[in-house]
């Protein structure tokens, strides 16, 4: 069996600790505005290194200085503890 999906109450509690994130269907998202394009790319590189270390990878949309991170455990079909853990890691990098 793979990573279990978070229940509704578990997800509510997890999102309460992730105020910069919002739910979007079977995913959570956060948008970050970097000071410059190169600063945004530097943030993406740091997030990529952390994601690789966790073996859990976000979808990342880069629009000039605006970065949008989307997390979902595709193999589980929704949100798991892997997503909320990586969201906390991303918060530590971008905040």
From TrEMBL:
**Keywords for the protein's UniProt record, in alphabetical order:** Lyase
Instruction: Write out the catalysed reaction.
Output: (4aS,6R)-4a-hydroxy-L-erythro-5,6,7,8-tetrahydrobiopterin = (6R)-L-erythro-6,7-dihydrobiopterin + H2O
Pfam families tied to this protein: Pterin_4a (PF01329)
Q: Give the SUPFAM superfamilies listed for this entry.
A: PCD-like (SSF55248)
Q: Which Gene3D superfamilies does this UniProt record tie to the protein?
A: Transcriptional coactivator/pterin dehydratase (3.30.1360.20)
- Its EC top class is lyase
Q: Kindly list the GO molecular function terms attached to this UniProt entry.
A: 4-alpha-hydroxytetrahydrobiopterin dehydratase activity
Q: What is its EC number?
A: 4.2.1.96
InterPro entries to which the protein is assigned, alphabetical: PCD_sf, Pterin_deHydtase
Name the family the entry cites.
Answer: Belongs to the pterin-4-alpha-carbinolamine dehydratase family.
**PANTHER family documented for this protein:** PTERIN-4-ALPHA-CARBINOLAMINE DEHYDRATASE (PTHR12599)
The name of this protein is Putative pterin-4-alpha-carbinolamine dehydratase
Q: Which organism is it from?
A: Nocardia lasii
């Amino acid at each position: 069996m793979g990573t279990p999906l978070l229940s509704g109450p578990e997800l509510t509690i997890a999102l309460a600790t992730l105020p910069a994130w919002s739910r979007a269907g079977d995913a959570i998202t956060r948008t970050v505005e970097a000071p410059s394009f190169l600063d945004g790319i530097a943030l993406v590189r740091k997030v990529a290194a952390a994601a690789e270390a966790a073996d859990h990878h976000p979808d990342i949309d880069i629009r000039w200085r605006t970065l949008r991170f989307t997390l979902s455990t595709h193999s589980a079909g929704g949100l798991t503890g892997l997503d909320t853990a990586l969201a906390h890691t991303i918060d530590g990098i971008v905040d």
